[in-house]
């Protein structure tokens, strides 16, 4: 499963989300929205105005969502 986290520097929710993914052993790609205009447009096209935005093969959401991260771990998205 491909998991991408779109984040911004100095974003507390982004840091917490990244830390939770690491603790759960979930492999992901982190994209810095401040350095990637195309990624910023993708996030806006998905309807989000705040970071982090997490995109998987089947779902996407914004903000720190422990319930979603636990579901990823349960689905076997770990390393």
Structure at a glance:
The chain is of the alpha+beta class and 79 residues long.
What this model shows, in words?
The structure is a single chain. The chain is of the alpha+beta class. It has a single domain (3-77), classed as 3-Layer(aba) Sandwich (Glutaredoxin). 39% of the residues lie in helices and 18% in strands. It contains three helices and four strands. The protein has helices at 12-24, 37-45, 66-74; strands at residues 4-7, 29-32, 53-55, 60-62. A four-stranded mixed sheet has the order 2-1-3-4, with helices on both faces. Helix 1 (12-24) packs parallel to helix 3. The longest helix has 13 residues, at 12-24. The radius of gyration is 12 Å and the shape is globular. The mean pLDDT is 92.
What is the CATH architecture term? 3-Layer(aba) Sandwich
Helix content: 25-40%
Strand content: 15-25%
Structural class by sheet pairing and helices: alpha+beta
CATH superfamily: Glutaredoxin
Highest CATH level, the class: Alpha Beta
The Cα radius of gyration reads 12 Å
What kind of sheet is the major sheet?
4 strands, mixed
Number of helices: 3
- Shape estimate: globular
Total domains, how many? 1
Q: For the residues shown, what is the average pLDDT?
A: 92
E-strand count: 4
For the largest sheet, list the strands in their spatial order.
2-1-3-4
